[in-house]
Amino acid sequence: MIGQQIRVLVTKIGFDGHDRGSRVVAAYLRDASMEVIYTPPWQKIEEVVALALQEDVDVIGISSLASDHLIVPDLMDALEDAGLEHIGVVVGGIVPDKEHTSLKNAGVARIFGPGASREDIVNGVTELGTRVRTAKLSEGDFI
Amino acid sequence: MSKPKAIPSDAENVQLSLPGFESAEAQWHQEYSQQIPIDRRILNRSGIQVDPIYTPEQWSSERHMVDLGFPGQPPYTRGIYPTMYRGRTWSQRQLIGLGTPDNYNERVRKILDLGATAISLLPCNSGFRGVDCDKAPLSLLGTCGTVINTIDHMDRALDGVPLDKISTAMNDPTPFTLLAFVLGVAKRRGIPFDKITGTSNQSDYISHFVANHMFYRLSQPGSRRLLVDHIAYCLKHVPYWNPLSVVGQHMQQAGATPAETMGFTLSTAIQYAEDCIARGLDPDSFLPRFTFFFDISISFFEEIAKFRAGRRIWARIAKDQLGAKDPRSWRFKFHGQTSGVDLTAQQPLNNIARVAIQASAGIFSGLQSMHTDAYDEAITCPTDGPARIAVATQNILREEAHLCDVIDPLGGSYYVETLTNQMEQEILKVMNKINTSGGMYEAVGTGLIQKMIGQSALSAQEKIENGEEKVIGVNCYQDDDNGVEQPEPYRPDRSKMEAHVKAFKDFKSKRSQATVDKAIAGLRKAANDENINAFERVVDAATVGVTHGEIISTLREELGFGSPLIAA
């Protein structure tokens, strides 16, 4: 059925290049029958916004190891400016507890820390993606 | 239970003359099988089956002279120097990098006051991407490394540091601007280049191409040429500098097994050595300056076997394949860093125990230099207190546990020697696969290596997910109480960083534009003329005030930006 499959953009912004986490997570989401759009690291915020729009994603997953999560609030602003505030954003990787609040306040839906299980991640993204998708459908996008 | 098998090459050599061995073994076997009728199969991370016991059937001391010899003698299985830690223990080289050059200087001076003889410098991630501080988001600057973009920044970072006495390790990928800044500072201070010692870490661009992409800055062919220029320049002008560190650490951190990692790394080193030979350099001039950099995981015996086997293979390659005649060229010198991948954010104090075990494996492996991780590394860039415990761990192992009293103390263990032989076979298998596909350059170009790393990463994670591999606090022995408050993450003082960026902009606007233009033109010319050493022009440019970002963008314009090949 059209509109069933959750579409997720898995990417990295900022300067870090470590991608073991994002690759493993991308494989997990694909195995869970989601459509995963995967990019190399170092995406500019405007590139992520453009890709999210072009690929009509439901969820953006930002992987962060070396403090790049600090510019996620800038991404949230850019999504809003582009009218994409309906997209669910999750962050995975190393985010110190003390910086969770600022990400949550900026609108990040979920933060998956080191040691998060496959089940946590797949369920969390499925739930978020389904919610975004349902809201979209009820707005009549796919009728 | 299946009886452990000797590896084929050993089988015909073992002539046991141990009265009573066979009957005693048969009796043990019977008793063992009665209590454990169906034995569980244990594989190490490299996929080698681990048996419940090892005896002279697998490895006997008759193979001593073939497999081991003595320390300081080929094939160096027992260590590359005759005295090993009795003569000199490994360098304790902790990675440092944070904030502004002034922040860095403060931290380095503290370490020197405590008696350190070696320092390291880790630049900000913006620098790794080749971007100066005026082109990076302020919130990211200095969070994971020091913001050093000019010779003046380096001068301040190394203020009061005696460059002629302290060995400096730079995390400095192609085109090696940090070393260029250091040489510029040495010139200013009147220190001759032959007094400068240390290592260009991260100079192995192939490891950046396939794993840990963060240090990747120039196209593959551009990096390839720059590396040989850099090696040739250093051999001639900075003779006590190690221009190359071949890095297995990135690959293992990205997911490669210990055996794959060693195979990839040695194949990479062969590639670089062949490039140097093609340039007309004598193997005995550059091989003594080749160094290696590895991860030490918590797979204790496997890591020890990995390093002992790697040392043996490299000695043979250097001698037989690369034609080096000087024994100093055959020595496999390596730095080990305890593996961050094994550390957990859950119950982080447990990481102190993990690091102590990883570090012990490193010591038993005979490493030359070591970094131990701080227990908070799965949460933040290391903070002060945890970093101190990391250093103390090395001191405790050396002074209190006496791990340095005996050279290669595990040598001759039936298990360790068998495993060393088995790891050697596994490593050689990986190297053969790379050879068959046309060498390391081809293998990374087609994505073969990336695919192997990705598959191993996924299968390692699978084992944790299904509980086959236990991680305390993550998939077993969980506890909501982490036992410690999360440390405050290190974030540089925003106003000082702002002032640093402003001063950088002022510096740029006040330079003589004619001098800068001339240096950039010289660099551009060298990039297009292989008869000119391009690294020499990098040094010239850095010395007259051309910035890190300007040097890299000029070279990118001429040699191509390139992008790592990422398989997902």
What descriptive keywords fit this protein?
heterodimer, A: 143 residues, alpha/beta, Rossmann fold, five-stranded parallel beta sheet, 5 helices, 5 strands, B: 568 residues, four-stranded parallel beta sheet, 11 strands, 49% helix, disordered N terminus
Structure, explained:
- The complex is a heterodimer of chains A (143) and B (568).
- Helices cover 41% and strands 17% of the residues of chain A.
- Chain A has helices at residues 20-31, 45-54, 72-81, 100-105, 118-138; strands at residues 7-11, 35-38, 59-64, 88-93, 110-112.
- A five-stranded parallel beta sheet of chain A has the order 2-1-3-4-5, sandwiched between helices.
- In chain A, strand 4 (88-93), helix 4 and strand 5 form a beta-alpha-beta unit.
- Chain A is globular.
- Chain B contains 24 helices and eleven strands.
- Chain B has helices at 8-11, 21-35, 64-68, 84-87, 101-113, 125-128, 151-157, 177-189, 205-210, 220-237, 249-254, 258-278, 283-286, 300-321, 327-330, 350-365, 384-400, 414-436, 440-445, 448-465, 494-510, 513-527, 534-543, 548-559, and strands at residues 42-43, 49-50, 91-92, 118-121, 167-171, 198-201, 241-242, 244-247, 290-296, 334-338, 369-371.
- In chain B, the strands form three sheets. A five-stranded parallel beta sheet of chain B has the order 3-11-10-9-8.
- The radius of gyration of chain B is 25 Å and the shape is globular.
Q: How do the helices and strands line up, and which of them pair or pack?
A:
The complex is a heterodimer of chains A (143) and B (568).
Chain A: E1 7-11, H1 20-31, E2 35-38, H2 45-54, E3 59-64, H3 72-81, E4 88-93, H4 100-105, E5 110-112, H5 118-138
Helix pairs in contact in A: 2-3
Chain B: H1 8-11, H2 21-35, E1 42-43, E2 49-50, H3 64-68, H4 84-87, E3 91-92, H5 101-113, E4 118-121, H6 125-128, H7 151-157, E5 167-171, H8 177-189, E6 198-201, H9 205-210, H10 220-237, E7 241-242, E8 244-247, H11 249-254, H12 258-278, H13 283-286, E9 290-296, H14 300-321, H15 327-330, E10 334-338, H16 350-365, E11 369-371, H17 384-400, H18 414-436, H19 440-445, H20 448-465, H21 494-510, H22 513-527, H23 534-543, H24 548-559
Parallel strand pairs in B: 3-11, 4-5, 5-6, 6-7, 8-9, 9-10, 10-11
Antiparallel strand pairs in B: 1-2
